[in-house]
Amino acid sequence: MSPFRLISLAALCAATLAASAQSAPITISVDLTDAPRKILHASETIPVQPGPMTLVYPEWIPGEHGPTGPIVNQAGFIITTPSGARVKWERDLVDMYSYHVTIPAGVTQLNVKMDFLATSAANFTEGGSTSANLALLSWNTLLVYPLNGDIAHTKVADIMVSPSITIPQGWHFGTALEPIAGATEASSSASFQTVSLEQLIDSPVLAGRWFREIDLAPDVTPKHYLDLAGDGPEDIALSQQHIDQFSKLIRETGALYKSRHYGSYHFLVTLSDQVAHFGLEHHQSSDDRVPEKTFIDEGSFTQEGDLLPHEFTHSWNGKYRRPAGLATPNYQEPMKGNLLWVYEGLTNYLGDVLAARSGIWSPEVFRDRLATIAADLNDARPGRTWRDLQDTASAAQMLYDAGGSYDNWRRNVDYYSEGDLLWLEIDETIRMKTGGKKSLNDFIAAFEGLDGNTPPKVVPYTFEDIVSGLNAVVPNDWATFLRARLDSNDLHAPEIAGINALSGYKLTYSDKPNYWSQLMEGDGLNATYSLGLTVSSAGTLGDVIVGGVAYKAGLAPGFQIIAVNGRAFTPGLLRAAIDGARGSGPAINLIVENTGYFKTISLDYHNGERYPQLDHADGVPDRLDNILQPLIK
């Protein structure tokens, strides 16, 4: 018998044993009572059969687009038999997320203890998610699951789990999981209906002392909830105006997607300055972590206004319709991100449009943000000349940790922002070719609303499916259209020409920052489009545009500006110096410090301050204005 035959039989036997072991579900109980001390506890029971077995800790978490499973924060990982005997585990020497064990004769259940140290400040479920008064539970951080022989034969949709939680006295919780009868969001402990491991990891739990659940758009079925947990009671005091805007978001998504692919939906919003800030999509909920005052400060509300529309859109685009390379059967198989310009880029565009249609943003705010994105990709991303848009998606799993110094030259996950421009151009092209009779809305309704209302499930797609779907709306050489933009190494983003020719607006520059520019600038100075730099209120240089005025003069990220034209630095003085140098004015002289050494640098720049804006274009239909019109009047 060949070695291949022996291996095949061994895998088959292991798969059969694992399958028979799943006649009973895994159980997992998570204790959040120590969440204020940034340590979470879990107890898990796994049905097993005697013999060799491999347990794995989730590595590739859907929506995180990389091997981000936070295994370094795992602690107290102990396996025992029901009698209390320790079962020794051994980590795989190549795959750090795999543990090999041997189940003793007569043992049909393993008891697993595990802690998660919620101390990291990194993004996504790597990050600390607790404070003194709240916690966000991501189930993938506190469990292991058995391989069904090997990775290739393991489907997390077939592994059933019965979950439960315990939370501190006086706390409340929200989740898309269905509590077993008798449990309420005010219970100190709750058990939930048995679900697949896939659905469990897709259903986080938000808990907190200061907690509020709001029923959104009560006229819409299925039900939608806004679950808020804050560091204090004032943080969850959302105004009725903003509640109405989120309710309108629910109605606008129904009109756009023509479908719902969930039984109910929960926005799980963490309002805290003590946790990592990001958004992570799930099929029936979203994990939205924002600064403490986001919902009670109007500037902060505007700045974060696209987050909930973005993550909500992912329920359709990303969770239901998913690129084939991201539709993996388990959490150990590597994902391929080559279509993230659809998964995230299209979601970014639709989320922004929905923010405007719902009234979260005014059309002016939308246009100001769009002008900033367009200017960045047109004038401040020289990295386009070597890394095309396609590679920002293909290399996503390493680029999420990029950013910071010289990011304009490196480029990171630009498929978010350039996705805005790409899908806007597609939308405008459809409207132009059909005389306004059709739009991207038609593609979205057909593509994301495939099969109408459904329970949560995954329907994969390919590049060819995107091209076919667009051609069904309006015939065009969409494959060439897309590849020309995805593979471009032009210094200026090719989609800018589409904005200038099709939107009814054109990208221009002014000496006054628009509203969005002011929000993003904060207390520092954004001189990206003039000197080619950003600087903090303390004078520390942020990014410096490679090839720009500041770069050519010898400045670099991290330098400290000590003085401007002989005076101690302030952002206002640098702004005044830029204005004073306009035309035939004197060059700008800086004293800068670099790792303890000082030098004088002269900036020979005379074009004044420059900030992006969109101006009306004569003779072009106002397609952008039409795009932002609500679908429900």
Please count the beta strands (DSSP E, at least 2 residues each). 31
Our count of domains comes out at 3
**Straight-line distance between termini:** 72 Å
Q: What share of the residues lie within helices?
A: 25-40%
State the low-pLDDT regions, or none.
1-21
Fold-level CATH name of the largest domain: Immunoglobulin-like
- Gross morphology is globular
- Largest sheet properties: 7 strands, mixed
- The CATH class label of the largest domain is Mainly Beta
Summarize model confidence as the mean pLDDT.
94
SS-derived structural category: alpha+beta
Amount of beta strand: 15-25%
Query: Architecture of the largest domain, CATH level 2?
Result: Sandwich
What Rg do the Cα atoms give? Answer: 26 Å
Discrete helix count: 20
Structure description:
The longest helix has 19 residues. A hairpin with a 7-residue loop joins strand 1 and strand 2. The N terminus is likely disordered. The chain is an alpha+beta fold. The chain folds into 3 domains: 207 residues, Immunoglobulin-like (Sandwich); 202 residues, Neutral Protease, domain 2, CATH 1.10.390.10; 80 residues, PDZ domain (Pdz3 Domain). It has 20 helices and 31 strands. The radius of gyration is 26 Å and the shape is globular. The strands form 8 sheets. Strands 1, 2, 4, 7, 11, 13 and 14 form a 7-stranded mixed β-sheet that branches. The protein has a 5-stranded mixed β-sheet with strand order 16-17-18-20-19, covered by helices on one side. A 4-stranded antiparallel β-sheet has the order 5-6-3-10, with no helix packed on it. The relative contact order is 0.09. Helices cover 29% and strands 25% of the residues.
